[in-house]
Every structure is written in C-alpha cells, then in structure tokens.
Write a structure and sequence with these properties.
Blueprint (H helix, E strand, L loop, with lengths): L6 E3 L5 E5 L8 H9 L14 E3 L4 E4 L3 E5 L2 H4 L4 E8 L3 E6 L22 E6 L5 H14 L7 H8 L6 E6 L6 E5 L2 E5 L7
Antiparallel strand pairs: 1-2, 2-7, 3-4, 3-6, 4-5, 5-11, 6-7, 8-9, 9-10, 10-11
Helix pairs in contact: 3-4
Length: 195
Amino acid sequence: MKDTPDITKITQTEVYVFEKRRKMKSTALDDLRWLIQVRSKDSLRHILQYVHIRADKAEATDGIRLHQSTHEQLVGLPDGVYKVLLNTEGKVIIELNKEETGTFPNCDAVIPDKDDLKGSFKATTGNAKYNNTVSKIIYRLGKGGGPPIDENYLADVIKHHPEEKMTVRYGDELSAIRFDCGTRMAIVMPIRLED
C-alpha cells in the first residue's frame, strides 16, 4: 500500500496512522473516527472493541448500533480486526490484530433492506446544525410512526459528518432505523418501551 496524504503505513508493521493534513469535506480519518465511537466498551464482548475492515467495508458495532464505511482508503487496508492505539481530533492510529481469536459478527445480516422500510426522509447533517438535526430527526420519526430512538445514539450517527444530506429510513416501532450518507451507513436499534 502506498502512502496517501491522509494515511501512512509504518514500515514493517501493520500499524496505520491517519492524519488530517488538509481541509477536505470527508476524509478516511473522519470516517474512521465515526466508526470508532460505536465500538463496544464491554470487556465481555471483546471482539466488538475492534474496528473490522474487509474488502468492501470498514465497520464497528456494539450490538445495538452499527456503523459502516466504504471509504476507499479504509477498505484498501488488509482484512481483519484493528485495535485503536490513538484516537484524537486530528490523528488516529490503528493496528491490525493478528492474535485475536474471535470472529467479528456478520453485520450485513442485520441491515434492513432499503425497500423493506416503510418511511424515509432527508436530513441535513453537519456540526453547524447538530442539535437542531437531532431534534428534527426525533420529531420526524415520532410523527411518521417510526420507532423511538436513543438520542445519544442518534447524536453519534451525526457526529463527524461533513455538511451534507442524510437519508433516514425506518419501519415499525420494533425495526432498526437506517441512515445513509455518502460512504457511510448506520443502523440503530430502537428503544424498547415497556407497557
């Protein structure tokens, strides 16, 4: 893999450094930081504490939400699970973990097909409209008969997004909510309300 302006491979290792070196709308660093925030923090679900990269997608999940990216600089890395060594605003360092014995779950199996979801709408994302966007999406889901969503999980979908449109798709109150935006796709499971 050759170096690009946003990613550097440290020679003779499987460590990759992503840095923001210029102002761009969306970079591999932005997509990677977006993935990292949804990794599991549960030590009993060890494999979910990694970022999984395969030929066509990079992904992370905690079992309740899933973020995937098809950014070309991420899917160009060797397949496997990556440990996050450093995660800061302008720099992320990840290392391919060749010793992990667990199997990352088949995340594609839980992604609802766009056509199976009954409702959809567009939302504008980006830091300038962050709080307003969260409120509008929650309102639109409620008005459209969509499932209830955890406000913090929704905020994580919107974080690190460039200023662009996002499509929100939803089904009934038990179905996952799907967010599509450029190279990114997210799934958030609904809140279970008790009677």
